[in-house]
Amino acid sequence: MDINxxxxxxxxxxxxxxxxxxxxKPIKYLGLLKMLYIADRVALDRxxxxxxxxxxxxxxxxxxxxSVYDLIKGNPVDEALPLWTKYICRxxxxxxxxxxxxxxxxxxxxxxxxxxxxxxxxxxLDPFHVAEWTHGLPEWKDPHGSAIPILxxxxxxxxxxxxxxxxxxxxxxxxxxxxxxDRDLHAEYCH
Length: 191
Description:
Layout: H1 9-23, E1 27-28, H2 29-47, E2 56-59, E3 62-65, H3 66-72, H4 81-87, E4 88-90, E5 95-98, H5 109-122, H6 127-134, E6 148-150, H7 152-158, H8 163-190
Antiparallel strand pairs: 1-5, 2-3, 2-6, 4-5
């Protein structure tokens, strides 16, 4: 059974904005997608939770955050598209640009550090080289032109997490989802 984190559009926008600001000019969205995946993977290793909470898929050019990719293409993802397009726009066929700074209220210091480290390592490289590098990640499978889901459990195993650690993460995520749902219900009831 996989672990399903909740996609956090605000954090995804802020994380993408950090990378765009570090780049200082329109960025190839392929590179942005690769760096966001790598940053989520590093966060899973260090913090036992991803930055974005997105779902991952294997595509021809490596692992991809599926909701962020949809947002880049202008496809709606729940209520996230207006938020995304307020801060990030598609400049041309291959680039996205930052329209405005969303700030960093949702990102913790460690997440910002991870994004900066990932940018330092991969941000100036040709995105196709980064995509090739991600083909070496054990969770990536060649989809032969389609998209294959990447399970968070597989990423955690590939990062060296034990079955016990993975079960603890699964229980923590279930607790968080329950508390979020409980808060939402309470907020609805009180209004």
